[in-house]
Amino acid sequence: MNIDIVKNKIESNLNRKVVVTVYGLRNKISKYEGILYKTYPNIFTILYEGNEKSFTYNEYITGDIKIKFLS
What we know:
Largest sheet: 5 strands, antiparallel
Low-confidence stretches: none
Mean pLDDT: 95
CATH class: Mainly Beta
């Protein structure tokens, strides 16, 4: 998967509700439901419970996180 394709996909869905699932160490899974808020050259952020939570495009490409677009 190409990073430019991922950036374009995320940028085209700004201000949409998303659920980001993070696959961490020792089989720990965290879910964040919020609004896809901002994009930057190396990261994107979601607005989650009034705070910004950032993720890298590389985390998405490697499968460390999954993004589900809700609306």
